[in-house]
UniProtKB/TrEMBL annotation, chains A, B, C, D:
Residues annotated as domain Semialdehyde dehydrogenase NAD-binding: 3-146
Catalytic machinery residues: 154
Family of the protein in this entry: Belongs to the NAGSA dehydrogenase family. Type 1 subfamily.
Name of the protein in question: N-acetyl-gamma-glutamyl-phosphate reductase
Enzyme class: oxidoreductase
Cellular localisation: Cytoplasm
Organism field: Rosenbergiella nectarea
GO cellular-component term (any): cytoplasm
A GO biological-process term: L-arginine biosynthetic process
Length: 334, 334, 334, 334
């Protein structure tokens, strides 16, 4: 039985983590922590999320001594901002905990990445070098021996799962940068008061064009540049990505399907559509990434959908835990 | 041509007022003001409301000297919190402006009302005594000679328009307190950052049960107690009220319809449904209050819908202006 | 292991039943049936509900011989229209199956009820007399020995769970008929093409005022008349009911809470709010009924919320199955 | 005063046309027609659209004799399916009416277009040759003398208004086909019962990938191929298009803005964003197309939004009427 700590448990991804870990047969969800300065410290998680009433009535611990917490837990999930994860992860790692970081702080091993795209100098390059990128379907071997798993960003998960099988076989013309148009639910902005996420104000709109940090994360891990345009949708959860790319050779629908099946058959949390393309609702509340496509001549359009809080955050983190500790990969997820 | 000032123009009702007054042929929309401390001061109204781009590109004036503004305007609309209206109205009134106050500060002539339900001692009881309640269809005569018009609350407008024709004829058993269940769009909470109005958090829920200030406003103006339960709906605009009451005598559907037609025929902004009951969408974005009903034995159920920002605020204020200055009552509204 | 059949599996409640039964450790979900004339016959359930892809890829059997099906199954869930349930239930019952009927066909033992409110003469009064009303928290003893369990309607479940603890103790003045204002999600109208449920057309609106069949269902089972006004909400799932009633004696908030706790402590699927009232989102996708209240003098306002497809249909049916076969009452539900 | 007829007045675009024409000072909205077989024939338009109650209480005429109608009207708006427009337009044109066709039947002068993309042989190639494409901002001169104006499709309007200023100056690399990702509100599917547009079923999803008829319409009128991927959004109205293209030369943000201003200054219904990109809400319910952009190296991303029923249909048709008859181009629109 693994003793688990979630830091940042009051956020949307944190609450989803709590739900999965609470029902996980190999995990004891011991502590839910938030910043000691948070106004939520001392409340029950179910005060914030009444749907959890009677299910997870644990109090939110206002964390003052991470060192002490480290000693009491085997596994730590950081559902925190990247600055916070950057500072906290080494404390837990040094104490021997296995850390699953849901922030961007350890996703790319090259420290330059942080100077260039996050605007700070990474202070823990030793841990950064050892961090394993937790794209679960592609990194299982590395995850099994990792102590620090950097769970991918929400947009990058859906994009990479769709593009990797083709890129790895050199089937995409990388001179035609894949055009990734992605639309995310409002929960992607986090649980906080903001006029921008007000029901009266939200309206479909691109944002962060050419500047979103997930663009270099995708490009770095795929090893090829992409054009990534995120949009804020007017729904609470889920991400849908429509990816336009160019093939290096003519491929039939069947040939492309076969490539995806070869990549993902045996991977229960990626579902391939042989016909049609997935709708967002197919994955909302579920730990899947669903992938469909259409092809016409040299052009291929991929459609990849996931729940931004689940396969794009919490469920992928638990999937990594399952892989890391040799549990069934879908344990507590389905 | 009337020179008009809107104070609180950055809010949802303020922006609707600006839209109506901007196209009003007898009004010059001279100044949009906000609190000098507002972070919106200096911005264009169309920066906040991009739908107004090219239509109302007026700057939001950070008000420091209301006295000076008073001298430059003939009519003033206060789309401000009741504490602000309470203090500002006398300044504009003393300078001779006609004031349309959309807050609760002057809606009931009895100062005790404020002590009891608003928790403060009213400081301007002379103006309070002279204020006219702007329930447009019922107060036209008084509005025509008023200097201070207190525009009714959103919930009270829909409730009173439905109940008054029956109460005035003693057709309702007042021992059975009318049960008013009302659901409002999120815009009723105003334009401000709040977790409560986040698209991810909003969910149909009653609030302010037995304690909402619109309950005594309705009861006082109707002269009879009511049970008023407001709900927050998961849509941006509109109010739907379902009112259960008991008749003092058996009345047919046709008799009830006739009573409503007698009350409102000739009133273009109240529409009576001879069959069925109105849906919210019938009035969203429009200056109407729509009323329908069903009767069974001694019980009568009234359904009254309006746009909370329009007939429940801005359009009723402009309707009062039209009445006050002898314009057609729907000028600029339809 | 119980062999289970769902008739009407293509509908919203049917698909929820399939999800619960598919993961139920004591049930083998053997057959999903639909009308032989349905255009869905032959499709996979996951063709209709892509979220079930890879989870429930069972084909929808176009039923031509219910007799033959009866012999192959132990338990039958009828998620069908009341006319269909009326005819089918006896076939399965005669073959010895235990039947859980989600329609209105067997909810009231008195045949007159059907003549009066459903407009037909009940043809199976013997089975009707034996049917047990499946309001799970209140009928456990009878359910344990029943062969035909008539699962309550969605609205009646939420209303009765809120009112019964008070009515049973004679704490409500029944001369003041409880005023039940209820708002349901669009899924309550079923899965079918209709302009009324189009995203472009749906808008908060009362319907079936004084005429909805759930009014006599509630009144009959509570033994007291009620005024029931259902509304169509603009959301997919969930029911929120706001019930205004009059107490026979003054009761404090604490006294009322104690009454509810006495009724439901030990019942894991009814959650009582000691403070505040529940929002709809607290129960969407979950098998709970959440109840809160506010009291002021002689008036009590109850707020009761549930997922119309779950506690109002599918999860309550499975709860009845669990009770009937002596499984834990929440097995497969939480 | 022009006597106007709308055929297909019961649909969403038809009702918007009726609203504009009803308040148009130079138009007498004489007749609203629907198919004689329509179940809406004989109803009032306000029976279908209660928001129009008291404003447009005209009956829907079940059309049996278009010839006779032709003689009674000066201008005819066809808000009908393309097959219907194809057959009806010549009847009205021969009688001397000016026809504004909102369907695809006359949008491309080359009859081959219909063989290739609509699957039928055009029977009225004489009228087809004379038809003028009503992209209002670009075709004013031709519209002024046209008898048949083919109002552009909803998607093509937003796409062309964004791309034409750049393409006309050879600033886009046409070897890199512009990637148009567009999301439309559900009203684009028309007013009819369909499971696909049910509030319970709608969910963000691409459709018609590589096969939507608006792709060749855009490509033909722009004179360059494009990749067009439409999506069904989960909102009632509006279209947002995100267009990724490649510049032939480096251009600064200011240079691009200047090109758009040169194209559209003086065109009140196209609004250019010098900073940021537009959100959908900026245009819902309004007759504008709003255009913004972002540039990075050789890549340019254009964002173009409009109300699909207005600038994408009804308001552009009225704009064409205004141009055709020398009225102010925004008459009755703003």
């Amino acid at each position: 039985m693994l003793n688990a700590l979630i830091v940042g448990a009051s956020g949307y991804a944190g609450a989803e983590l709590a739900t999965y870990l609470n029902r996980h047969p190999e995990v004891n969800l011991a502590t839910l922590a938030v910043s000691a300065k948070s106004e939520d410290a001392g409340k029950l998680l179910s005060d914030l999320y009444p749907q959890l009433k009677g299910r997870i009535d644990l109090a939110l611990h206002g964390m003052t001594d991470p060192q002490a917490l480290a000693e009491q837990h085997d596994v730590v999930f950081l559902a925190t901002a990247h600055e916070v994860s950057h500072d906290l992860a080494p404390i837990f790692l040094s104490a021997g905990c296995t850390v699953f970081d849901l922030s961007g702080a350890y996703r790319v091993n090259d420290p330059e990445f942080y100077t260039n795209y996050y605007g700070f100098t990474h202070q823990h390059t030793d841990w950064l070098a050892k961090a394993v990128y937790g794209l679960a379907e592609w990194q299982a071997e590395k995850i099994q021996t990792a102590q620090l798993i950097a769970v991918p960003g929400c947009y990058p998960t859906a994009a990479q799962l769709a593009l990797k099988p083709l890129l790895d076989r050199q089937l995409l013309n990388t001179d035609f940068w894949p055009v990734i148009n992605a639309t995310s639910g409002v929960s992607g902005a986090g649980r906080k008061a903001s006029l921008k996420t007000s029901l009266c104000e939200v309206s479909l709109q691109p944002y962060g064009i050419f500047t979103h940090r997930h663009q270099p994360e995708i490009a770095t891990h795929l090893g090829t540049p992409v054009i990534f345009t995120p949009h804020l949708g007017d729904f609470p959860r889920g991400i849908s990505e429509t990816i336009t790319c160019q093939l290096t050779q003519t491929l039939s629908r069947e040939e492309i399907a076969a490539i995806f099946h070869q990549a993902y058959d045996g991977q229960p949390l990626v579902r391939i559509y042989d016909e049609g393309v997935p709708a967002l609702k197919s994955v909302v509340g579920l730990p899947y990434c669903d992938i469909g496509f259409a092809v016409e001549g040299q052009y291929l359009i991929l459609v990849s959908v996931e729940d931004n809080l689940l396969k794009g955050a919490a469920s992928q983190a638990v999937q990594c835990l399952n892989i890391r500790f040799n549990f069934s990969s879908t344990l507590s997820l389905l």
